[in-house]
Amino acid sequence: MLLTAKGKLLPAQEHKEKLLRTIQVVNQARNYISEVAFSGRLANKVKLQRVVYEEVRRRFGLPAQHTVRAIASVVNSYKAKKKRRWEKKIEFDTFSAIDLDQRLISFKGIDRASINTVEGRIVLPVVWGSYFRERVAFRRGHAKLVYDRHKNEFYLLVAVELPEGEVSEPQGVLGVDAGVSYMAVDSLGNFYGEEVVRKRLHLRKKRQELQEKLSQKKKEKKDTRSVRRALKRLARKEKNFVRTKTHEIAKRVVALAKALSLAIALEKLKGARERITVSGRGKTLNYLLSSWNYRLLQSFISYKAKLEGVRVLYVEPHGTSITCPVCGYRDRENRKSQSEFECRACNFRENADLVGAVNLCSGL
């Protein structure tokens, strides 16, 4: 199984300048190459290289292998757009990540990386997270060099090949339903991520305050740059927080399923938001539904389960949130609100998301 390991580079100041200079020059070259490719409708690497190689070397002073990788990255970017590739020219940011192949990067053990820059090769310390530290030996020959301009730090993203766990025959099923008041609920009655929802609503309030401040500054024709920067910081903060918590929740779900020898049942997500049947949802619920990334949690559960040898099953969720798990009676009126379920036939009452998770198991 292919995963991406993230390592933090620890360069001295002089090496930082060389890395930054390399990233900037490569992206300048990529923008030139993109312009030529777009104007000539060239998405073939061999043909494009014949046209731009010598000029890129001369104009930007780029080493040969960096030139080859820059051309390849431009071609891949246009090919990724498929039929829409020639609608708009691709432009690269000054600090966009750059590709490094086995000629541009090599590893000296697991804690040092040798990187070819526009000013020569440098050897840098690299620190890996505890999970990947023992697994970097499985790395492939390519990496991405990433610069975080907000932290003024450099990172390596390396593809790592990890063996999947041996899948054993499950003794039951753990249903996991995506929630709104919670990130997820499982069929054993465990609720995950309530603090994430609270945090997101808190950040939403701060974002609204900043947006009001921004509108006021625009009316008064004042400088809005500080407010815009604050909004971007807030967006990054929320994204990083949610992603970290999602990893933690997926890890807990998979660990529980493995410990109890259970498969994991997830709902098929196509049209998930449209299936919410609660009327009069209100602005807060609409915000959570429209902005929540259900697929992120499922993707994390899926890949972590593969590594641990836990089977994942996808279930058609039609009617799971409105069907009584006790008597089987199905009615939209069973779901009184977003969080409340009360069967109109047998008066069974429970959290609506928990009912959905239990019904995912019976839907197999």
Give an overview in words.
- With 364 residues, the protein is an alpha+beta fold.
- It has nine helices and 14 strands.
- The protein has a seven-stranded antiparallel β-sheet. Strands 10-9-8-11-12 form a five-stranded mixed β-sheet.
- The two termini are 27 Å apart.
- The relative contact order is 0.11.
What is this structure's SSE topology?
Blueprint: E1 2-9, H1 13-40, H2 45-60, H3 64-80, E2 98-100, E3 105-107, E4 112-117, E5 120-128, H4 130-133, E6 139-148, E7 153-161, E8 173-178, E9 184-186, E10 191-192, H5 194-219, H6 225-259, E11 263-267, H7 282-291, H8 294-308, E12 312-315, E13 340-342, E14 349-351, H9 352-362
Parallel strand pairs: 8-11, 11-12
Antiparallel strand pairs: 1-5, 1-7, 2-6, 3-4, 4-5, 6-7, 8-9, 9-10, 13-14
Helix pairs in contact: 1-2, 1-3, 2-3, 5-6, 6-8
Class per helix and strand makeup = alpha+beta
Beginning-to-end CA distance, first to last residue: 27 Å
Rg (CA only): 25 Å
State the helical fraction. Answer: 40-55%
* Morphology: globular
Query: How large is the count of helical segments?
Result: 9
Strand order of the largest sheet: 2-6-7-1-5-4-3
Proportion of residues in β-strands: 15-25%
Largest sheet: 7 strands, antiparallel
Low-confidence stretches: none
User: Care to count the β-strands?
Assistant: 14
SSE order: EHHHEEEEHEEEEEHHEHHEEEH
**Mean pLDDT rating:** 88
